[in-house]
Amino acid sequence: MDKKLKSGKKNIASDRHTDTTRPEIKRVSGEEDSVILAEIRKLRDEHTEATNDTKEALTRLDNVLKDMVERTASLEQRMVKTEERLGDTEDRMARLERSVAFLLHQEAKLAAKCDDF
């Protein structure tokens, strides 16, 4: 039985070296090599072009995002200034309303004094 296993192992080992019908071992001609190399070069060129296009798109996107951040910051500053002006205007309006109320009260007092004379 040992002889069968040993001889079986030899057959398997010898099959590895002599089997040329396997697809991964199949040899191609020089012309086929040239075609394959041309296709590989074409794919590499396409990949390089796609990579460059992607880099350009990312650069444009980065620039757009920077511009948006700047605009947003500017708008936020304008909003803060506008809110401050609105607060100041509301304060001024309250003071003016108090002044009008005081003046109307004073006018009523003076009108009453004039009526007494």
Quick description:
By secondary structure, the chain is an all-alpha fold.
Number of strands: 0
Largest sheet: none
Number of helices: 2
The outline comes out as rod-shaped
How would you describe what is shown here?
The chain is 89% helix and 0% strand. The radius of gyration is 46 Å and the shape is rod-shaped. The model is unreliable at 3-17 (pLDDT under 50). By secondary structure, the chain is an all-alpha fold. It has a domain at 28-92. The chain is built from 2 helices and no strands. It has helices at residues 2-18, 30-116.
Fill in the keyword field for this structure.
mainly alpha, single chain, disordered N terminus, 117 residues
Topology:
Blueprint: H1 2-18, H2 30-116
